[in-house]
Design goal:
alpha/beta, Rossmann fold, GMP Synthetase, Chain A, domain 3, 3 domains, seven-stranded mixed beta sheet, AMP-dep_synth/lig_dom, acetylation, ATP-binding, ANL_N_sf
């Protein structure tokens, strides 16, 4: 290991996939245009993002594109007036999109609801009027504790339309976790449902919401709105609780859209921090809508005939940007599914793709690994020929999972677009396009207008092939505008390596300039001076046909200082045993060489994960070393 603390890169991926000629011909952005956009953005970043902003509607144009005088508190499009909901809904009512499907929703029991842009516009207006009647005003915080329902989308848009700040909380969180977020945001209103369907069961939600309101936050929440999803009996508190259906029934179909400053907050989204205390990431109307619109339409090559399905829950940033705001601004049709991906069996996602003719499927590697475990029999039962693009998000995808998705879901015809971005970035940052040459496991290159580097702890660029820390070297429009009531913590993103945004991920850049994300910077194992990313070890395990999923952590070793322990979930048809352990260790040696010392392998039926499906390696490490696991309620990264 050199003095900079570079990460050793042992896993080499040689396979390359070129786009089909017809796909390149039909792409909205051809290779020459992409290269031109990169050059333009590099020479004139303000000009590039101003051009992107001109694709959207504004009530008043900006005084300048970027005000960086108070960095890192950057202000994008200062002086401008806008509202993201105007671009997501209002403007479509004056175009041919008016009667186009905006949302196709399917519940776990099989019930369906569909909304055109005009129908969704009117539903949002009705609930916007209801929110105003409850006393919600511009700047007030509204917490939305909901499963994936149409009313979740409507609530987000209605809050934003009247200038309120929404904070969506994943419906799987406990009352304690919900209470923390309500308290921190000082929310005026809570929106929830009686319950929802998950894996064949009804999960009650209203009682959890009631429990969350017992305590310090009871004074800030003035009202609770309850959506009737499962028609189960719930206790309603007189004067505080209101049925959603009763509120909107009496409201008008039209509602004025609040005129917002470009840097007025749009939403808070709580994500985890190293302290375990969730951070309220703030995104604002103007910059967020410009960045999300430009990158989503560019990466996913949105066409008028597309049916776009992002499987992320609305409680994560992916659900916000790629599930709701991005597709609506693009004028495309989105699919939303309420329930468990394996209910009633492991073909539910593929049945939905076939039923609605989904053309773009965007999901997480966790989901792919889970479905790989069931083999190829389920996707083969459905006609997936409507698919033209596949995408992944949320964590590094191993080459083997990439290949499985490409071959078995994409018929070896659909590019797999692995996107890197974060709650804090708001928009896609590093990603291939459909026209890109792909390497399984790589996110390829930064998008036009985004500048990234791989550096050591001192901020010096590391040579190709060497691992380092991923940083963003210049501001971008949809960057978070702050952390709620925590400026000091916000500044830490720029103080870890002065002058650049520290992403917290380990990465390397190969000889072709492609970026490979190797996992979080704190997920590094130091074996005899060689610092190896946990994600790299896990990807090597994934090469073995027995392995469904793996988590690797560092454990003390008297000789090496640290060695790796692997926790392995097996695919169906494989049994744990000494012979399999020997074979797995041999695989790691073949893939990574003798430096990757595997001290032990433990077989498990499940692995601890965050609510959004990311491996919680620190829980395994704490268990192994006898440490306190600590508070896990903040572990909700996207």
């Amino acid at each position: 290991m050199d003095q900079s603390g570079a990460i050793d890169n042992l896993l080499q991926e040689e396979r390359v996939f070129r786009p089909l000629p017809q796909l390149v011909i039909e792409a909205n952005v051809n290779p020459q245009e992409l290269e031109g956009a990169r050059k333009f953005a590099a020479m004139d970043p303000a000009g590039y993002w101003e051009e992107a902003a001109d694709e959207l509607d504004w009530f008043k144009k900006w005084d300048q594109v970027l005000d960086d005088k108070d960095a890192p508190f950057y202000r994008w499009f200062p002086g401008a007036r806008c509202n993201i909901v105007y671009n997501a809904l209002d403007r479509h009512i004056e175009t041919a999109n008016k009667n186009k499907l905006a949302l196709i929703w399917e519940g776990e029991p099989g019930d369906q609801r569909k909304y055109t842009y005009f129908e969704l516009y009117r539903e949002v207006n009705r609930f916007a009027n209801a929110l105003r009647s409850l006393g919600v005003r511009k700047g007030d915080r509204v917490v939305i504790y909901m499963p994936p329902l149409p009313e979740t989308v409507i609530s987000m848009l209605a809050a934003a339309k009247i200038g309120a700040v929404h904070s969506v909380v994943f419906a799987g969180f406990s009352a304690k976790a919900l209470r923390k977020r309500i308290n921190d945001a000082q929310a005026k209103l809570l929106i929830t449902s009686d319950g929802f369907y998950r894996n064949g069961r009804i999960i009650g939600l209203k009682e959890t919401a009631d429990e969350a309101l017992v305590g310090a936050c009871a004074d800030c929440v003035e009202a609770m709105v309850v959506v009737r999803r499962c028609n189960i009996g719930v206790d309603m508190v007189d004067g505080r609780d209101f049925q959603y259906e009763d509120l909107v029934r009496q409201e008008r179909n039209e509602a004025p859209t609040e005129v917002m400053d470009a840097d007025d907050p749009l939403f808070l989204l709580y994500t985890s921090g190293t302290t375990g205390t969730p951070k309220g990431v703030v995104h604002s109307h103007g910059g967020y809508m410009v960045g999300v619109h430009r990158t989503l339409t560019t990466v996913f090559d949105i066409k008028p005939t597309d049916i776009f399905w992002c499987t992320a829950d609305p409680g994560w940033v992916t659900g916000h940007s790629a599930g709701i705001y991005g597709p609506l601004m693009a004028g495309t049709t989105s699919v939303m599914y309420e329930g468990h991906p394996n209910y009633p069996q492991a073909d539910r996602l593929w049945s939905i793709v076939a039923k609605y003719g989904v053309t773009i499927f965007y999901t997480a590697p966790t989901m792919i690994r889970m479905l790989m475990r069931f083999g190829t029999q389920y996707p083969k039962q459905h006609d997936l020929s409507s698919l033209r693009l596949l995408g992944t998000v949320g964590e590094p995808i191993s080459p083997e999972a990439w290949i499985w998705l490409y071959k078995n879901i994409g018929r070896s015809e659909c590019p797999v677009l692995d996107t890197w971005w974060q709650t804090e970035t708001g928009m896609f940052m590093i990603s291939p396009l459909p026209i890109s040459v792909l390497k399984p496991g790589s996110v390829t290159k930064a998008l036009p207008g985004v500048e990234v580097d791989v550096v050591d702890r001192q901020g010096n660029p590391v040579p190709p092939g060497k691992g380092g820390l991923l940083v963003v070297t210049q501001p971008w429009p949809s960057m978070m505008t702050g952390l709620w009531n925590d400026d000091d913590r916000f500044k830490e993103y720029w103080s870890q390596i002065p002058g650049v945004y520290y992403a917290g991920d380990v990465a390397r850049r190969d000889e072709d300039g492609y970026i490979w994300i190797q996992g979080r910077a704190d997920d590094v194992i130091n074996i005899a001076g060689h610092r190896i990313g946990s994600a790299e070890l896990e990807a090597a395990f994934g090469v073995h046909p027995a392995v469904c999923e793996c988590a690797a952590v560092g454990v003390p070793d008297q000789i090496k200082g640290e060695a790796a322990k692997a926790f392995v979930m097996l695919n169906e048809g494989f049994e744990p045993g000494d012979e399999l352990i020997k074979d797995l260790k041999k695989t790691i040696r073949n893939e990574l060489g003798p430096v990757a010392v595997i001290k032990s392998i433990e077989f498990r039926d499940s692995l601890p994960k965050t609510r959004s499906g990311k491996l919680m390696r620190r829980v395994l490490k704490a268990e192994e070393n006898g440490f306190e696991i600590g508070d896990l309620t903040g572990l909700d990264e996207d």
